[in-house]
Design a protein that fits this description.
Blueprint lengths: L1 E6 L2 E4 L4 E9 L4 E9 L6 E6 L5 E3 L7 E6 L4 E6 L8 E9 L2 E4 L3 E6 L1
Parallel strand pairs: 2-11
Antiparallel strand pairs: 1-3, 3-8, 4-5, 4-9, 5-6, 7-8, 9-10, 9-11
Length: 115
């Protein structure tokens, strides 16, 4: 079993930056993909960015060029660096881990971007 603890959310102005972090504990040796999803009010949860154990990344078209996920396998940690934030990025962001066919989620952290 894996436990995920997120931090780094907050309130920022448009054009600003935030970095989210997520630390995994428990049965971490078999973790494959780590990354981030988000859910805005009235919308479905959507993929933001993920990174495989080997370093391959994928991201939503809406954040390409602005957000990037990166990880340190030795520290069992994944980050989401968010630059050039827009009001439409406002959402609850969830850390995500895929391990042996199972998905695990962090508690969520609020990101609010003002105009």
């Amino acid at each position: 079993q894996v436990q995920l603890v997120e931090s780094g959310g907050g309130f920022v102005q448009a054009g600003g930056s935030l970095r989210l972090s997520c630390v995994a504990s428990g049965s971490t040796l078999s973790i494959n993909t780590m990354g981030w999803y988000r859910q805005a009010p009235g919308k479905e949860r959507e993929l933001v960015a993920t990174i495989s154990r080997g370093g391959s990344t994928q991201s939503a078209d809406s954040v390409k060029g602005r957000f990037i996920a990166f990880r340190d396998n030795a520290k069992n940690t994944v980050w989401l660096q968010m630059n050039s934030l827009k009001p439409e990025d406002t959402a609850v962001y969830y850390c995500y881990v895929h391990i042996w066919g199972s998905n695990y989620w962090g508690q969520g952290t609020q990101v609010t971007v003002s105009s």
